[in-house]
Amino acid sequence: MGAGEQRARRPRPASGHATLMTGEADVTSRGDGQVHVELRHIFKSFGGVRVLKDVSLVLSAGEVLGLLGDNGAGKSTLIKIVTGVHEPDSGQILFRGQEVRGLSVDRARALGVETVYQERALAEQLSLWRNIFMGRPVSGPLGFLDVRKMRRITAELMGESMGFTSAALTPDTHVTGLSGGERQGLAIVRALHFEADIIILDEPTMGLSLKETDKLLHFVKGIKTAGKSAIFIDHNIFHVYSVADRIVVLDRGRIAGDFPTSRYSLEEVTEIMREVASTGKFVEPERYRDTRAASDADEAGGSS
Amino acid sequence: MNATVEDVEKTGAMRRGWTVRSFATTYASQIGITVAFVVLWVAFIVLAPDTFLDNRIYVSFAQTTPYFALPALLLTMVIVSGDIDLSFPSIMGLGMVGFVAVERTTGSPELAVLAALAVGAMAGLLNGLIVTIIGIPALVATIATQFLYRGLTLALVSGKSYALVEARDSTAFRILDGRLLGIPMQFVWLVLVAIGTWMLLFRHRLGQNGHVIGDNRPAAQLMGIPIRSTRTIMFVLVGVASALAGAMQSLQVSNFYPGVGAGYLLPALAAVFVGGTSVFGGRGTVWGTFIGAFMIGAIQAGIVAMGVAAYWTEVIYGGIILAAVSIHAVLQRRFER
């Protein structure tokens, strides 16, 4: 099957997921510039309501893309199209330059997309190992589960990646017994265990303590080092700005702005966001337009 | 790195070693209901020794409890997946229409049993499709099909009963209702189906996916779990188990009457919930349903044997069910996380 081939061809990250949580982040490091995901002219409506209008987007290896926008701007629809939950009405989705039609969640996962949906996507009454392997359990040809293996892997992940050292937690602990931060850790580790290289974080800092948020942001920075890519969705512009290479502002189903954090200060981004929210448009001030044109010229023939 | 090798080993050791304490807390409500079962049993033995120290009552339980316990076991899977099936008593009857039709044309009770199972599967499939494709909540859909299937049963046989006396010497009878080392085959089948159900629910992709669907359906969708097919298969399995139970009961009494199965709805549901399965989905137990079925099955006989005035039977019945479900509520809140 095509998905299998894709999977085999996908370069394996040099470092395992263990280092992602704890390894030193190198913010300047960029991947090989390979395009991981490209969306072209995506349209999507639900019951006559146009949620996405002509959205095009490129996500490259080693890049963290911050996706900002108000409630109802279409952020979650956009990521659900990348993850295969929704199919667009029209437009193309390309993974590593190849168009994929009829994308499903399974297919997207096989192509290396994993999503951290925070605790919304955990099954509370189920054990940790059943949550880690949700949707893709290790099983034999007849579909019977290899529980021993899943328990073992979960125990390893708990020790190495989640930093769960409490004796009260075992692979058989139910999610109801975890704190908010621990649940977040579980959701992240689940995404990373399957060697995803396109990681989507949907409001990952929601409900986290300051310390847990720091840990999470540190982890997102680590994604770049490993040559993976990420789309980071959050309401909190401070969180997004501190880790994102580019910020894409979505407003009422359109892309209202797409700018690199290296050239815009946090204050400027905040101002633009405010402007977009009130006017629905992002009018680039003269001074930015000049610098942007100049740097675009510098980068001509570059990665995109 | 804040996790050391020692920590990892510690987690590993915990993973392998069930201590008495961890076992007790993990299965607190299961242990609770089992103790309740034993207490009830001892009470019956003390209060009605003539009945409960006699082998015959146990043979009777082993023959009659499976008629509703078999559907209840598979119903447990449906409920864990967040659905419900109220139509299984009617499927017990509808399956037997298939049995009678094939038995009258081929003269083979064995083929007739297979026909009954096939009809049961079809009825379950229809339930599943109505619920997953049209999108009607299972509670509502199966109230409708419960009437539909019972009505079809009555209409197809014009409300008549059929004698199945000639099938008493058949292999089908020996397999479903005979004895194995003195144990009624109904009970043997119940144990086999219970083991199979446990395997499917806890050691198979089907049950893993069903658990997730019942616990958090939006999450199941986000994780790419085949929600429709999983839920549909659960309904099909209940249909097959119900048809099997219908054939067992009809062959045992050598008679098919179109009302077969009627009256099993509440005992089966009671067995599932007395066993500790969550009505909200995501959490269930096969052992609990098994034990629950025998508690429900024994209460009636027990109360009668104890010589309590018949008027009080249902009061005690309800009290015992409430007590059992309370044990789960309290123990699960207290111990299980």
Would you give an account of this structure?
The complex is a heterodimer of chains A (304) and B (337). With 304 residues, chain A is an alpha/beta fold. In chain A, 37% of the residues lie in helices and 21% in strands. Chain A folds into two domains: 2-112 and 197-298, Rossmann fold (3-Layer(aba) Sandwich), CATH 3.40.50.300; 122-194, no CATH class. Chain A has eleven helices and ten strands. In chain A, helix 6 (147-162) crosses helix 7. Chain A starts with a helix and ends in a 6-residue tail after the last helix. Chain B is built from 16 helices and four strands. Chain B has a two-stranded antiparallel ribbon with strand order 1-4. A two-stranded antiparallel ribbon of chain B has the order 2-3. With 337 residues, chain B is an all-alpha fold. Chain B has one domain: ABC transporter involved in vitamin B12 uptake, BtuC. The A-B interface holds A 18, 22, 83-85, 104-106, 108-109, 115, 117, 120-126, 130, 133-137, 139, 143-145, 147, 151-152, 155-156, 158-160, 163-165, 167, 169-174, 176-177 and B 1-3, 7-8, 10-12, 14-15, 22, 26, 199, 203-206, 208-209, 211-212, 215-216, 218-225, 278, 282-283, 336-337.
